[in-house]
Specification:
about 500 residues, alpha+beta, ADP-ribosylglycohydrolase fold, Immunoglobulin-like, globular
């Protein structure tokens, strides 16, 4: 049983949103600066915060959790909310939306024709909502963060960055030592990722006594091949603020913003993390008073009347959803007026050591699940009993007479085994080679990936190839009420 002190948690969540607003407001005037800055405080007028898409998207994600429930949330569900409520078409936002409307689902929606922006900042800047909904349990926060990031960043550095910040922020509810939570959060991403290496570089430079300005230059040089507005450098700038700021809210934020680049994002993330660590009551009162409690939106559809308009209101709505999020992830929690008591007896809650984590019927999500997707893959279907995803060997495009290969993976969500009977409905003149029947073995466990069912499919295009070619997959499951259907789209070339 998990017990969370209600007032302490409320203050930390409120601190997260106020800190986010402060940092976004302070950093916004310098966004895109390629040179080192030397700021002292706010440049905007006193009285209210500046609008920031970093926070706007999280208001829509909260609406999705409230309306669909944490049990049914998926990358596909978030995609529908994105298309309905988020207005911008810039950078990765625009590429992701274009891919979604063309029928390419996550994570492929964040990969296809997204070479310039897949490693950018649009995902990790919106991770606080998942951390606040799963305080102290980064496994859960990262489960939802991957759904989120994969929509417009696929399986790229942008997604690694959100997994890292979601874990970092969730851990901040439970730990007070910044160095400790950084080390633990790194276990949720690949050691080969540029985000991982950039974070480690900041730590190395700080420990060597390098000035934060010189550390910033080292990071810029290290990631110069990626260019500006990319996740590895900007996450590192957040870390410069957190580590070199040494617990001082104002110094941490100013150092991070001074690094330049995506300054509203770096400042906002530093503010959110510091707000969680120390609570809203410990954020400097003059900075809190400067922006007030309101939330100003910039990229939410004008007909959306459910978006929170203040940090106080946002905090209360998050608080209401926390017990349901934990219950959807096999945990029972209660608010208490007494001491917070974390439950680490449940299987999968060894959050400090991901190597020991396994998922089973009553365990927490396994971070390794986030890495099962390859670049050109997507969630094909979800039923009560079976999950399916499809992975292309390469970019999903084909010319007349050409072949393309893909793999259907199926995971058993229940304890019984079953047969699946597969039928492909192809465009006229096209052919496919695949096993028509597949056996789905016992309950899937990521610690034993051999338990997932793999079906290899080879498709050959006919003489007629359209700009977009649609294939329908029909799967009947022996002994089950619910069948599965998936749409496979292939571009013509």
């Amino acid at each position: 049983m998990l017990y969370l002190n209600k007032e302490e948690l409320r203050d930390k969540i409120f601190g997260c949103w106020i800190g986010k607003n402060i940092g976004g407001t302070m950093g916004a005037p310098y966004e895109g600066s390629s040179a080192m800055q030397d700021i002292e405080g706010f440049k905007s007028a006193k009285g209210e915060p500046l609008p920031n898409d970093d926070l706007d998207l999280q208001l829509i994600w909260l609406r999705a959790v409230e309306q669909e429930g944490p049990w049914h949330l998926s990358a596909t569900v978030l995609s529908e909310y994105w298309l309905q409520f988020i207005t911008p078409h810039w950078n990765e936002y625009g590429v992701g939306k274009s891919n979604l409307t063309a029928g390419f689902l996550p994570p492929m929606s964040g990969e296809l024709n997204n070479e310039v922006w897949r490693h950018s900042n649009g995902a990790w800047i919106r991770s606080e909502i998942w951390a606040c909904l799963a305080p102290g349990y980064p496994e859960i926060a990262c489960r939802y963060a991957f759904m989120d990031a994969s929509v417009d960043h696929g399986t790229s550095e942008g997604t690694n960055a959100e997994l890292f910040t979601a874990a970092l922020q969730s851990l901040a509810f439970r730990e007070s030592d910044v160095r400790v939570i950084i080390d633990k959060a790194l276990s949720f991403i690949s050691e080969e990722s540029r985000v991982y290496k950039s974070v480690k570089k900041v730590i190395e430079l700080y420990d060597a006594g390098v000035d934060y300005r010189d550390a910033r230059e080292e990071i810029v040089k290290m990631n110069s091949d990626l260019g500006w507005f990319q996740a590895p450098s900007n996450v590192a700038f957040v870390l410069i603020g957190l580590i070199y700021g040494e617990g001082d809210f104002k110094k941490s934020m100013i150092y991070s913003i001074n690094c330049g680049d995506d300054t509203d994002c770096t400042g906002a993330t530093v503010g959110a993390i510091m707000g969680i660590l120390h609570g809203g009551k410990n954020i400097p009162s003059d900075w809190k008073e400067y922006i007030g409690d309101s939330i100003k939106s910039i990229c939410i559809a004008p007909d959306d009347t459910m978006a929170a308009t203040s940090c106080t209101r946002l905090t209360e709505r998050v608080m209401r959803m926390i017990p349901m999020v934990f219950r959807a992830n096999n945990m029972v929690m209660e608010f208490t007026d007494g001491e917070t008591k974390y439950d680490d007896n449940i299987k999968g809650s060894a959050w400090w050591d991901q190597t020991s984590v396994e998922t089973h019927l009553f365990g927490l999500p396994d971070v390794r699940e986030n890495f099962r997707f390859k670049r050109y893959s997507f969630e094909a279907f979800h039923t009560v009993h079976t999950d399916g995803y499809i992975e292309f060997d390469g970019k999903p495009e084909i010319a007349p007479g050409e072949e393309i290969e893909l793999t259907l993976y199926m995971k058993n969500l229940k304890v019984d085994q079953r047969y699946a009977y597969i039928t492909l409905h192809l465009p006229e003149g096209w052919t496919a080679t695949y096993d028509k029947a597949a056996f789905i073995d016992r309950y899937y466990n990521p610690a034993h990936p051999e338990l997932k069912t793999e079906c290899k499919i080879k498709i050959t295009a006919g003489e007629k190839v359209l700009p977009k070619n649609r294939i329908i997959m029909d799967i009947e499951f022996e002994g089950k009420v619910t069948d599965a259907y998936a749409t496979i789209n292939i571009l013509g070339k």
